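FORM 7B: Structural annotation worksheet

SECTION A. Query
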Amino acid sequence: MSRDSVITFSEYYDLKKGQFELDFVDVPISGSDIKLFIDPYSLSRRKQPWYTECAEQVYDFFDILIDLIRLNQKDKALYLLSGLHESNETRLGYSPNNQGAAIGKVQTNKLYDSLRGSRAVETGVLKDIEECNLMVAGIDRDKISDMTTNIIKYNLIKYTQSQCVLCKISMHKLPVKNVFDNDRKEWMNDYYDLPKDVNGKPIILVPKDIVRIIPTLNANEFYNHYVLSFLQDELYSSASSLCKLVKGVRKKPTKKIIKEEVTRVGDPKKDEFKKSLKDYLYEFSSRHEDVLNEYREAKNTDAADPSLSNQKIESKNKDRQQDYNELIEKLKNIPPGRDSAGEYHDFIIGALNAIFYPLLTYPKKESPINDDLKRIDIRYVNAATYGFFSGLSQLKGIPAPFIFVECKNYQDDVSNPECDQLATRFNDRRGRLGILVVRNVEDRVRLINRCRAICRDGHGYIIPLEDSDIIRLLNLKKKNDEIGIDEFLEERLAEIID
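SECTION B. Predicted structure
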């Protein structure tokens, strides 16, 4: 089956949106799974409640599991491992096999044996679940992704439900196995409201900012760029015979020579004098934990854990282009007025997803606040680790865990009630910055003065955007001009503060 013949979730549900307009991975519901993997490290890097809750659940589960293995409580450990098989509902990873109970039991025992036989687990050198990819044989990115998926499956179900509400997708009571109850520490099988595929099976959506192609912590990267570099320096300092003289000058040994003469990493099944990569990395890390810590620290940066671009996600799925021009034309063809308010609202959600990913994530439509007395058009989680949105709290003193968006498809200018409506949503816990999206502003000076008055009174910060602004931002995004987007937002914020 060619990639072009694959039916994706958005196509099946006729969302009329591309990957860049969606917050979740637009997974295939026919053919093979999309070869993307949930990386628990990406969860731990984010400080927003949904991500931290997921990360804490994963690390809590793993700590309990490792303690049981070290205490040789095999039955309890096997029970925890029994729910960590591939989760077919997400359509991520490698194509699923129809695993029977016997096969599932074999896999559970293999997982246990891998962890029980790992010196890294036994000695405590291995700290977190993602480090299995460095030092535990038989546990690679797919297994780590499967384990993480099942541990946070309930959170992913809730996320899926919110996206279905956002996109007006029908849901059905469908059976889901292996949902971990983090309070009771038990695996549960239950029915949940979820979308279904062509065969009536449940689909669980995954936020696209937590998937990776290659895990953040990577054995080959650690070995080639940290371990071998360290050994080069060490051998040079000790004047090893592996150092060559070139025109009377001693040179560091090459990495190739170190691989052949020192580390001797390879397949021990084919050569008894070789050692598996992960076994060697454990032995090296136990002797030189400072090098492992250096690698851990290097990965604890924004640049080391970039979210996948929409283009990269799409390249794993279908050959579809992100057509910003088509998006701009779509906006121009939506008439103002009550009759097309829903269409405009849906468009703005997709457009803001396209412009602000991965900085603003997890959009929720009409989120209830104040005991459900008031509703917000759209609420985004501020997941920014760089740029305009990341600096709101620390640099400007503006609380902004969430960013609120109100959409008004009016033919005329908005007035005080619309500005006040957004301002009443603000508080220090939810945040004090919102975006008011309107079609066109005839008297811009009056609107800016209204926003300034709200700011001056200490209620919060409202940035108004009209069609021409949305088009400008889409054109900047089309050119990948993130600096231009930041400068635009900085100018608009300064306009209402001054």
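SECTION C. Observations
The two ends are 59 Å apart (CA to CA). The mean pLDDT is 88.

SECTION D. Sign-off
Analyst initials: ____
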